[in-house]
């Protein structure tokens, strides 16, 4: 240990020598090299280089931009640890704010505004108001960001200083980059501020859209974010704005594309002409498809957002479903999202093609994905009535593979199909009964037990089958035990002679030999029901075999308000979690639609054709290993 | 919304570079813990209730960017892409541990320009070259640099040695071409165009009827199917691709002095270009007036003018299929690949066929016989059949073998363990000289070249490249 320490000290000492030596140093080459090594060794966890603070400060005055840059990086890195020493650098930095070179003015301005020390903050106020009007645009844009940074350190000082007014002036600057920097600074401040709010009028918004094309991609994303602060007062105005924005959909930067989609979706809330809205959203399709050629991480975010957009407007990619077909070598997170989109876009027209494709996924190697594919087939049977038969045939085809996890998934979804379509497909029960041995997962067991109990009168040997499951009753999970209890009672009600013995046994176990309160309660309930109504079997039947509420994928819909808020957050993490950002992260302002004469009411939106299919599920939420497509 | 820091680590998570942006960003140590606990599908990690981590691997390095939560998700991801591009531009791909360590301070200064107030700001290589000198460990890489880069290097380093020489420079371009460096000068004016398409195809398994037809028709030397490329002696049925998509990029490498204004006219036959995405330098209005026309003032060096997608293209110069249940024991599989007779190419390169099977169930592949090329199991569940160098057109090869099923597997309900076969094959290759979509350059014209010698004929031509990347054939 001591060795290492000595060595480290030696290193700092050696570098100091390099910096302070009187030897000739043409073009400061030696000092540059030393500073480079210092910068490379300067990490947050390595405070050894801090010993060199005074020596580095001495170099700041040297007439070399490169040296200045490195000294400034050093200063920013260590200023909080040595505030007294850092303060000594302030006069040089303030001097540099008046340098002839715009690069140096901007550089020192950026440095001073990055240093969160009171002396630096206070010293910056006066020069900042001058630099906001600097002749060089690079300095003006740096000044705009400087105000935002200064505000973050000391809001009240900045608000009193009139600097925010100064930034406001930049919005009419002749240089587009400066305009966007000013806008970015204001957005940054108003996002964090309690009292201030950004509001952009039509004239300003119109000008922003005009300069978009002259800005670099990041400035475009700023401006697109800021345009959400524009509230159209007139439908025609909103439509015009959306039309003028739509060329941005063809940008090569994916965040510009999604930012544009977000603003256009936002504007549609203020557009009255439905066919115009359809025309606008149709343009989203091709750019979204192009994003699928990007790196996987970008593809994933794009797909999640695509999923969210398609909730509202499935028609925009209804005919392009093939682009979402999975390749075996797609990462699982991409496959799963593609599967959700395929499910979302499934309709009577393309169901045959989709089933063929899902059947293919069900024979993949990745077990997790296979399971989701099987579930998706089952859910499609529930989503599209006319396709139920085809879906069931596909499922039976899969059950015939006798692969344990496929049989189990299929069993679970078939149970749901029985619930959705009572008395229609029960002929397939016999196929399931042949595969009871494959069931070893609680969910699948419970599903099968439910089927046996529900159809005890139609399954010839239902008592034997149940008896077999009951053999391991005590080892089962509570989920399976509850299912077994109910199924046995159902058997008894439908076939008293065959069920009598079993029901007594199960009731005894459930009431006397369990520690689980749920099981015990349910056991007692059945016990009392059966003994009190012994004279009237109909009542018992009505209670136990009562009609269940119909299930449908429709019941999984996100409500309109949530969809509305989510669509205002396109491009953010909302699409990944399917929750408004304000609910996921603290300190984030919720977005909502500002009132205006042009605003469409949400319920009228609900009736518009765009909203006719809002399938989603709470269980879509968990994309990370959660039980997607489950019930 | 802001970026909190930028870390670069090696693939083991060991920190090579750090650039803190905020006062106290999460340390790499914390990020590594979060990454270790994450599942592979966590593309974006939640570090806390208001912090996120975006990350991406590239060239055996891992780029980590912790951000505040309100960050639009694509901004940091696109930023990583740009950062990698810039580092490639400065230090040549592939990046390595050594390159990062050697150029630590340069990368630091680059990031200082690239991020402003926690948000990406300048990421154009051209703009950055004006701001951050191309020095440091550069001399070591100099020999591999293109001529133009070395020239621009000279002019930059000389100007950075003294503040006087740049005092007159305006650092933000006043003109409306922010992507182009000011005062570009080249001794040899050159302009190249490259169009590259990556082809993704999914071909389904043959239906039973199609298989039957094939078994009737196939002779001892099976020949590929009829297509635009080839008229075979023995007609054979092949499955139609479910998906055949070409993702294309039009790249320009310009080393032209002054401010050249260029018009490049492309033709895509009758095909529909889906979702074209343009470099900011391309004038969209011209494209809309006449689709296929790229009118632009290019940035100096390399840039991607246009990206596009075309679906429903042909399945490319290389075909393949997978048959299972062959041989006396019905336990053999056969993979075949063939090259079609070309319109205008003589060979493909780096042909590679991945044979994918269930690595849990299959222990080994025995009795492999390849008519040419070399087949090896390269990792669990993947065998690779390689054809190094060039593969001629109008050629074919086949590979036979039997999968040895893992003995530990439980027998199925009928008491036997099912024979395993490959699930997919995946073909990849490079094919110079053709584009699968049929796209081509119709003309290129330098409309005006302020500062460019009138006699200069800089346009050196166009190169086409089709990369078969994911040609997946399902078994």
Would you give an account of this structure?
The complex is a heterodimer of chains A (631) and B (475). Chain A is mainly α and 631 residues long. Chain A has helices at residues 2-20, 29-41, 53-59, 65-78, 83-96, 102-114, 118-131, 137-153, 155-161, 163-170, 176-192, 202-212, 217-226, 235-245, 254-268, 274-282, 285-291, 296-312, 332-345, 351-361, 367-383, 388-399, 404-420, 429-433, 442-454, 462-470, 478-494, 496-512, 517-532, 537-544, 560-567, 574-577, 581-584, 602-607. Helices cover 19% and strands 40% of the residues of chain B. The longest helix of chain B has 18 residues, at 74-91. Chains A and B meet through helix 2, helix 4, helix 6, helix 8 and helix 11 of A and strand 2, strand 4, helix 2, helix 4 and strand 7 of B.
In short, what is this structure?
With 631 residues, chain A is mainly α. Chain A has 34 helices and no strands.
């Amino acid at each position: 240990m001591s060795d290492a320490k000595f060595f480290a000290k030696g290193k700092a000492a050696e570098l100091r020598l390099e910096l302070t030596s009187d030897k000739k140093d043409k073009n400061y080459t030696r000092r540059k090299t030393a500073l480079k090594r210092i910068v490379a060794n300067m990490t947050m966890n390595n405070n050894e280089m801090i010993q060199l603070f005074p020596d580095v400060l001495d170099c700041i005055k040297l007439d070399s931009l490169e040296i200045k840059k490195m000294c400034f990086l050093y200063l920013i890195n260590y200023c909080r640890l040595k505030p007294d020493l850092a303060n000594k650098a302030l006069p040089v930095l303030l001097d540099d704010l008046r340098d002839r070179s715009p690069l140096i003015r901007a550089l020192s301005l950026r440095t001073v505004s990055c240093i969160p020390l009171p002396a630096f903050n206070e010293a910056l106020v006066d020069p900042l108001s001058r630099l906001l009007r600097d002749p060089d645009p690079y300095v003006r844009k740096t000044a705009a960001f400087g105000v935002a940074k200064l505000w973050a350190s000391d809001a009240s000082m900045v608000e009193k200083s009139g600097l925010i007014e100064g930034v406001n002036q930049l919005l009419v600057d002749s240089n587009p980059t400066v305009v966007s920097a000013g806008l970015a600074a204001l957005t940054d401040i108003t996002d964090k501020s309690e009292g201030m709010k950004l509001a952009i009028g039509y004239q300003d918004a119109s000008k922003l859209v005009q300069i978009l094309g002259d800005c670099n991609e990041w400035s475009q994303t700023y401006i697109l974010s800021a345009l959400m602060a524009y509230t159209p007062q007139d439908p025609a105005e909103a439509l015009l704005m959306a039309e003028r924005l739509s060329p941005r959909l063809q940008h090569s930067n994916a965040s510009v594309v999604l930012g544009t989609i977000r603003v256009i979706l936002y504007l549609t809330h203020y557009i009255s002409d439905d066919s115009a809205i359809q025309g606008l959203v149709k343009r989203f399709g091709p750019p979204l498809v192009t994003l699928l050629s990007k790196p996987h991480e970008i593809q994933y975010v794009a797909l999640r957002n695509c999923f969210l957009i398609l909730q509202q407007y499935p028609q925009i990619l209804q005919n392009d479903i093939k682009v979402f077909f999975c390749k075996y070598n797609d990462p699982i997170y991409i496959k799963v999202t593609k599967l959700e989109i395929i499910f979302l876009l499934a309709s009577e027209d393309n169901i045959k093609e989709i089933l063929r494709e899902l059947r293919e996924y069900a024979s993949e190697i990745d077990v997790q994905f296979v399971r989701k594919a099987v579930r998706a087939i089952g859910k499609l049977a529930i989503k599209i009535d006319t396709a139920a038969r085809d879906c069931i045939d596909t499922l039976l085809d899969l059950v015939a593979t006798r692969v344990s996890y496929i049989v189990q998934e299929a069993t679970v979804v078939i149970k749901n199909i029985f619930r959705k379509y009572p008395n229609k497909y029960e002929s397939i029960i016999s196929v399931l009964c042949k595969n009871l041995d494959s069931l070893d997962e609680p969910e699948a067991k419970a599903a099968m037990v439910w089927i046996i109990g529900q159809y005890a009168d139609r399954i010839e040997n239902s008592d034997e089958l149940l008896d077999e499951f009951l053999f391991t009753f005590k080892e089962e999970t509570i989920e399976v035990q509850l299912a077994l209890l109910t199924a046995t009672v159902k058997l008894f009600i439908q076939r008293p002679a065959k069920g009598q013995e079993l029901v007594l046994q199960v009731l005894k176990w459930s009431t006397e030999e369990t520690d689980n309160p749920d099981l015990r309660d349910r056991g007692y309930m059945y016990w009392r029901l059966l003994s009190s109504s012994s004279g009237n079997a109909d009542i018992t039947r009505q209670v136990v075999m009562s009609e269940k509420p119909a299930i449908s994928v429709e019941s999984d819909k996100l409500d309109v308000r949530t969809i509305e808020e989510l669509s205002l957050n396109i491009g953010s993490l909302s699409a990944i979690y399917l929750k408004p950002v304000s609910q996921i992260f603290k300190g984030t302002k919720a977005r909502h639609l500002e009132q205006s004469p042009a605003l469409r009411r949400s319920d009228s939106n609900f009736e518009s054709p765009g909203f006719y299919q809002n399938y989603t599920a709470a269980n879509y939420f968990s994309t990370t290993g959660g039980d997607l497509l489950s019930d | 919304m802001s970026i909190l820091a930028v870390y670069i680590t090696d693939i083991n998570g060991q920190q090579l570079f750090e650039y803190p942006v905020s006062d106290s960003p999460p340390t790499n140590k914390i990020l590594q813990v979060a990454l270790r606990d994450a599942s592979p599908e966590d593309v974006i990690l939640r570090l806390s209730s208001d912090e996120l981590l975006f990350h991406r691997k590239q060239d055996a390095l891992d780029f980590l960017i912790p951000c505040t939560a309100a960050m639009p998700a694509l901004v940091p991801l696109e930023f990583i892409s740009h950062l990698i591009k810039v580092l490639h531009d400065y230090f040549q791909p592939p990046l390595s541990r050594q390159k990062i360590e050697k150029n630590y301070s340069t990368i630091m200064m680059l990031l200082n320009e690239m991020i402003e107030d926690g948000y990406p700001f300048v990421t154009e290589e051209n703009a950055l070259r004006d701001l951050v000198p191309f020095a440091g460990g550069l001399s070591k890489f100099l020999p591999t640099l293109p001529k133009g880069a070395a020239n621009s290097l000279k002019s930059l380093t000389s100007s950075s040695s003294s503040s006087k020489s740049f005092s007159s420079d305006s650092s933000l371009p006043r003109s409306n071409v922010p992507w182009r460096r000011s005062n570009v000068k080249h001794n040899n004016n050159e302009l190249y165009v490259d169009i590259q398409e990556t082809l993704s195809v999914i071909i389904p398994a043959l239906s039973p009827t199609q298989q039957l037809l094939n078994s009737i028709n196939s002779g001892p030397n099976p020949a590929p199917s009829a297509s635009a490329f080839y008229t075979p002696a023995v007609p054979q049925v092949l499955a139609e691709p479910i998906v055949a998509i070409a993702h294309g990029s039009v790249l320009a490498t310009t080393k032209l002095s002054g401010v050249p204004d260029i018009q490049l006219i492309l033709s895509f036959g009758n095909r529909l270009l889906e979702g074209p995405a343009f470099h900011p330098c391309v004038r969209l209005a011209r494209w809309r007036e006449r689709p296929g026309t790229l009118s632009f003032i290019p940035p100096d060096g390399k840039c991607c003018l246009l990206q596009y997608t075309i679906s429903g293209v042909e399945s490319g110069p290389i075909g393949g299929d997978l048959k299972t249940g062959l041989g006396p024991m019905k336990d053999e599989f056969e993979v075949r690949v063939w090259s079609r007779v070309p319109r205008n190419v003589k060979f493909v390169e780096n042909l590679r066929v991945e044979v994918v099977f269930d690595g849990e169930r299959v222990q080994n592949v025995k009795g492999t016989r390849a008519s040419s090329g070399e087949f090896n199991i390269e990792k669990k569940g993947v065998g690779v059949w390689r054809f190094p160098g060039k593969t001629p057109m109008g050629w074919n090869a086949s590979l036979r073998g039997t999968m040895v099923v893992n003995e530990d597997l439980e027998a199925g309900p009928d008491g036997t363990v099912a024979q395993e076969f490959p699930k997919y094959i995946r073909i990849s290759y490079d094919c110079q000289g053709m584009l699968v979509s049929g796209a081509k350059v119709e003309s290129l014209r330098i409309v005006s070249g302020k500062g460019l010698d009138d006699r200069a004929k800089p346009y050196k031509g166009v190169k086409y490249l089709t990369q078969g990347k994911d040609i997946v054939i399902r078994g």
